[in-house]
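FYI - complex with zinc ion, inputs then prediction.
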Amino acid sequence: MEKIIKYIESNKDRYLEELKDFLRIPSISNEEAHKADVVKAAVWLENHLKGIGLDNVKVFETEGHPIVYADWLKAGNNVPTVLVYGHYDVQPVDPLELWTDPPFEPVVKGSKIYARGSADDKGQIFIHIKSLEAHLKNNGKLPINVKVIFEGEEEIGSENLHKFIEVQKDMLKSDYVVISDTSMYTDNLPSICYGLRGLCFMQIDLVGPNRDLHSGSFGGGVNNPINVLAEMINKLKDDKGKILIDGFYDDVEKLTDNERAEFKRLPFDEKEYMKDLEVEELFGEEGYTTVERVSARPTLDCNGIWGGYQGQGAKTVLPSVAGAKVSMRLVPNQDPDKIAELFEKYINKIAPKSVKMKVTSLHGGKPSVTAIDTPAIKAAVDSLKKGFGVDPVFFKEGGSIPIVNSFKEVLGADGILLGFGLPDDNIHSPNEKFDLNNFYKGISTVAYYYEELSKIK
Ligand code: BES
Ligand code: ZN
């Protein structure tokens, strides 16, 4: 291992330049205009994976964006086979004017690299690629069998990967799935994420009168879809943060006293949190701490809302249409399809006759949890300790990576989530960044991890 760690140390600058190349590709998955760029990122990965010495490198076409696969399976039957998963697609960059530097022209300032995708998830998949390279270039082999799969649709729901893993079950069969697409709990605190929330994403469209109307001539005569929408949204939650959709909490797994005690031990400073966000007060479900509310309890949030005049100045219009996007984060045992049904039923119940309404389910994903008493988690603890010099903490992440549940259901493989991002990396926001110290420590950690995993079968 010493040789490998030295190799990582002496190749740092090259690693960084390569990462910058990867980050220059604007692989935004939800914008048609960037379809070719998403393909470009897949081909870039294909070439890179060939270059480091992986076998069977292949780009699989799908109905959406491509899936990149490669493997190295010569370590024999006495060691585990690990699937390394990540995504090379990135979020859109708007609002562009809030970026200090252009999102696809990576710049290093201090220890941070700024670019869209730097933390989510290109920088983190590159950690694995460079660890594999360090093993292969120094030893000509890997300590375990490895399959890698990188998708271009994580940010839009992984629809084609869900289908792909059903069809390619045999090719993807593995003992564990290792994923770096989450964050560390705080800086200098290596972390293992053992739970992810699920997601149910809905859209409400309302139509009132058949055309926009003069609000003087018609105001008072017909209901206004924006007013109706506001009232409906207001009925989704009470003022104590409890979600009012009938049956919403029916399947929610209760938090155990033990888990709640563990959450209390996480280093969380409410004052710092408020200061960072520049808010005077926090809000969330009554009876739960902030740590619990943002990771282990379900939520409902409006993500977008529209209707009427939004331009400069005033326009006296009574709009014909209004709409909103509403997402719910789900916790173990909740099923996104069932929640979508309950949502639609409730919305129908509270909608007045004065508007026509359409409720659409956009996408969803199941929550996931990893049992923390498995040997692969123990090996992760040891590796993080070696890579960072500190004992890691366990926590649940509020975000979602829906494919993790499918890996478990379809392949029977537990997800091991080693996140190297930081909570303030601005993922999905302007000025996304990634800490290069964690990038390099991550590469060493993962190199140790592959070695540690070879001892557990
Ligand atoms: N990397 C994130 C998941 C994540 C979010 C990790 C927050 C750590 C903190 C992932 O790329 C993501 O954003 N997922 C989406 C999934 C959705 C589109 C199905 C999410 O959580 O919104
Ligand atoms: Zn991500």
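The chain has 14 helices and 18 strands. Residues 120-121, 154-155, 157, 181-183, 199, 365, 397, 399-402 surround BES (ligand 1) (CB under 6 Å).
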